[in-house]
Amino acid sequence: MTIHQSAQGGSQPSSAGEPAQDTGIEVEPVAGHIGAEVTGADLTVPLDDTAVTQIRAALLRFKVLFFRDQHLDHAAHVAFSRHFGEPVVRPRRGSSAPPEFAEIETAANRLGGTRFGLDHGEWLERRRYSLLRGWHCDHGSRIDPPALTVLRAGTVPPYGGDTTWANLVAAYSGLSEPLRGFVDGLRAEHRLGVGYLPNPIDDEYARHLLEHQIATVHPLVRVHPETGERVLFVNGYYLQRIQGLSRAESSRIVELLLEQATRPEYTVRFRWDPGAVAIWDNRAAIHLAPDDVNHLGFRRIMHRVMITGDVPVGVDGSPSQPITWPQPW
Ligand code: SIN
To answer: In CA terms, which of 47, 198, 228, 255 is 20 to 30 Å from 240?
Structure first.
């Protein structure tokens, strides 16, 4: 594997000290802190162990990897994802998901909310009442959020519809040393539906969220289980409040940390085309789905497989604690 580095660094073989077996895989960073495009891998066929190891190493380093021209079908999507762990299988996957592939979830724009009797536009507006609240890791209010997500383009609009990711390790490192020390010891409540509503409201979707409530106390800074890096474990869609702070303190510090996490220098934006696949580390990155094509009437259909994750652990070694239990998928 070759990783194309900065101008100073030139191109390098994979990890330091490791004899690089030439799998033909090339990794080209596409932004300063996050994201790399991978070429030389054919995801439509089974990968050998060396290729999987190289892709995993690149993923841990760059947090999100992009592959183009892959044109996976559902079976190949699941098979590729299985190289990285056990796929999550949810009993409720919505009517768009392929019934014969329990590991795949399908998100079709213009449909969100309609299953709860809501107009799609209204649902979107309530869901993203502020920009920061749209950012999320997948299923972040669970005690065990997925480790990875593999998203593939089904139908893409002719323009627009990009997804953006932010690197939470870089965001943590970019905080001042006193602030890092402050957040290291804190814990926060993450709850389903926090990013849906600015105010209490009674609609079918809000009732669904309450009836299926999933909530967890996570460390505000988690230690990545594979890299040991400290991750500023914030996202606007699930994080409700920081424990031990007053309501006013919590809301201002949450806003400050969300702004930090989503500063443009920590982000990368990906233009989808047919055949494109993205895989990201859901433990170290948050993402923002696009909201710029619905008003144009374009279809955008995406398929995802999530890989089972573990319980986050804080800097003090203590794991997350459930608020609601059990937490069915
Ligand atoms: C997501 O928000 O989980 C999916 C991202 C996308 O559709 O771009």
So the answer is: 228
Q: Is 142 left (phi over 0), alpha (psi -120 to 50) or beta?
A: beta
**Below-50 pLDDT ranges, the chain:** 16-17, 19
Instruction: Kindly tell me the number of DSSP H helices and DSSP E strands found in the chain.
Output: 7, 18
Pocket of ligand 1 contains residue 164 by CB under 6 Å: no
Which residue among the candidates 33, 139, 241, 304 is catalytic per the annotation? 304
Tokens encoding 234: 């914030």
CB-based contact 143:318 (threshold 8 Å): no
pTM of the model: 0.93
Which CB contacts under 8 angstroms, 24+ apart, belong to 17-23?
Answer: 21/50, 23/48, 23/50, 23/51, 23/54
Active site residue 136: yes
Q: Considering the candidates 126, 138, 152, 283, report the single residue annotated as catalytic.
A: 138
Q: What is the pLDDT of residue 241?
A: 96
In 3D space, the residue among 151, 312, 307 whose CA is nearest the CA of residue 218 turns out to be 312
Q: Reduced to 3 states, what is the DSSP secondary structure of residue 50?
A: helix
Do the beta carbons of residue 231 and residue 223 sit within 8 Å? Answer: yes
Q: Does the annotation count 300 as an active-site position? A: no
How far, CA to CA in Å, does 217 sit from each of 190, 221, 283, 286? 6, 12, 15, 18
Q: Is 281 in the pocket of ligand 1 (CB under 6 A)?
A: no
Q: How far is the CA of 192 from the centre of ligand 1 (A)?
A: 17
Residues 137, 149: Cα–Cα separation, whole Å: 10
In CATH terms, the superfamily for domain 2-324 is Clavaminate synthase-like (3.60.130.10)
Q: pLDDT tens digits for 13-24?
A: 555 445 457 889
